[in-house]
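Slide 14.
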Amino acid sequence: IAYLIVRTTIRGRALLDAVGPDATKDETVRLWYAATIAFLLQTGNYANARPQLDHARLLFKLDPDILFQSGYYHEAFASPLIQAAAVAAGSEPRGGKAHLEDAENDYRRAVRENPRFVEARVRHGRVLTLLGRRQDAARELRLAATAAAAEGPQLRYYAELFLVQAEESL
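Slide 15: predicted structure.
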């Protein structure tokens, strides 16, 4: 199955790059990238998500969804579990802190492009806490907690959970 996914995404990229007159202005192309990246990330297929993300970021530099997914990728790669697996596999991973810094940058840019993107704001605040930037994290998570109330109970729960962690660390 993994082989088929890789072949499909490679062929899909080639096909969608040929969309004229400008693939970067085609909503279907953007949605295809967002959907395939979401699937790859959800299934933990980070190796194949990376080239999809890299190509999508070239095409859609300021798209908040693509920036969010890139942040999610880096946040996941910063986790101790994935860092340990990378070391055990003999690869030379970038350290977790470098991935957290990339995640923070991507989430910040996603929020800048769409200030109402509450999940990006929640994750941004969490990454700021992990980076030790507790004041910034608390400020971001206060905004997120207020906005998350309108988005639903699950997002509100995480916003408030991470806010408590940031404020407790202050």
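Speaker note: The first helix runs from residue 2 to 17.
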